[in-house]
Design a protein that fits this description.
Layout lengths: L17 E4 L2 E5 L8 H9 E7 L3 E5 L4 E5 L9 E7 L3 E4 L5 E2 L4 E4 L7 E7 L5 E9 L5 E4 L3 E4 L4 E2 L2 E5 L14 E5 L6 E5 L6 E2 L13 E6 L6 E10 L3 E5 L5 E2 L5 E6 L7 E6 L7 E9 L2 E4 L9 E9 L2 E10 L17 E6 L14 E3 L4 E7 L3 E2 L12 E6 L2 E5 L2 E7 L4 E9 L7 E9 L4 E2 L7 E3 L1
Parallel strand pairs: 5-11, 13-20, 22-28, 30-39
Antiparallel strand pairs: 1-2, 2-3, 3-6, 4-5, 6-9, 7-8, 7-10, 10-11, 12-15, 14-18, 16-17, 16-19, 19-20, 21-23, 23-26, 24-25, 24-27, 25-26, 27-28, 29-31, 31-36, 32-36, 33-34, 33-37, 35-36, 37-38, 37-39
Amino acid sequence: MKKLIYLTFFVLTGMLANCKKDSEILVIAPKPEPEKENLIKAVQFLKGITVTGAEKIEFDSVTNSYLVSLPDSYDASKAEVKVSMQKNIMLWDSAQTTITTDSIIRYSYKSTGPLHFKVSDNPEKSWFYFTVYFNFSGTPKIDLLSKEIPVNASGSILPLRYMAKVGSIPAAPGQYGPTVKIINRKTGFTTESALYSDNMYANFPDAQNLITSDPLAMEISLFNQNSVVFEGIRFTRDMPHFYVLPDYKFEYSRKDTIKVTGGFFLPDKKYSATFTSDFLSAPVSRNIRFNDASRLTLDDIPSELPVGPYLVSFYEDGKLLGKSSIYKSNLEPSEVATIWDSKTNAIENIWKGDISQTLNRNTNVLSFHKGDVFFVRSLPLAAAYPGFNFDVAKLPSLRLKRNGATVELKPALEVFNWGIAGVSFAIGKYTIPTDLAAGSYEVTSFHVADSKESKPYWSKMEIR
């Protein structure tokens, strides 16, 4: 993602000059102080903007932003923004595309992000970025498509639709977008969340209190506008949100516990886990203990399971909640290491697609075509600080086995940079030979350095 480079400049305190003509408002950039060279350059680039049909336009010198106020009668699908520039100045839109025809940007402003554009000299040596926010001041028109709304611990997708009188989101500098509040007028309980306009997602604190027979009210608030309130809302319990914690843990001792969090879980429901593998003669199931509305615990991993990787499926009253994958070892709980320092030879993840999927263990059976490229994250994991020069020799070969024959795939090195964690790790990239016979293959990893071979991955690889 390209980062926008904001250059801050200062202006004289005073009113912005507004010129209105044919329902257009021209906002002139403030006259600079002579000694402020950076401000003089900005004025030499941009005179101001005109927005057809606007009621008022204000300039915020701190954020280099224009705030466009639109009348309630404004219903154009796209705002026509005309940028008034000095001679020999180029205009660029948010896609970094040069606009050279009429210096007009036609922007779909409704419930989308604000408009960003850049002006620069020609050739491009100096430039300035500007942002245009669009907002209304009346009551937005918002439709509620259903008064019955599913919710779980991860939040809810609200059945709302913006219809009219809704500007950009956010609608002003420093403003984070709409908020939604749920009110139980009988008990006084309230909970509030940001409303993410791309999918109308909200994540309410104490959301379990929304599951009630009491009628609820929903209040939607947009910047500088009257709130919209819907009465008689009812939330229903959605399928519980689910994930295993800690999510980075892969290797488990037989005496380990598997902890599930999410919700909302109920004490009168039956929870279970089923361990499967293409090398297990029959699935092995265990009941899971209910702790509270957000926590479940599997106290012991089945002792009859051999050492190796397994797919674990979690159920509520026989209905699938989600899946994870683990590696059962023969170590004591105190001896089990994290993926960062584990010495176990194992395949943790096999997937096809973007390399960033390395952070999510694949829980689907493997089905590839000849010539497909795929990735493998294996243990021991080669991890280091960003910029480290990894050695492909540390990555294992893959062995595909079928009908007594073995095909060995050599790795190519890929490096995944996990920026938020400040760490990089080596990923193996492999290619299915185009002449490989179709069929179902057992997959193991083989480390040349120590001549150790892993247990088979929990899923066989189907080659088509």
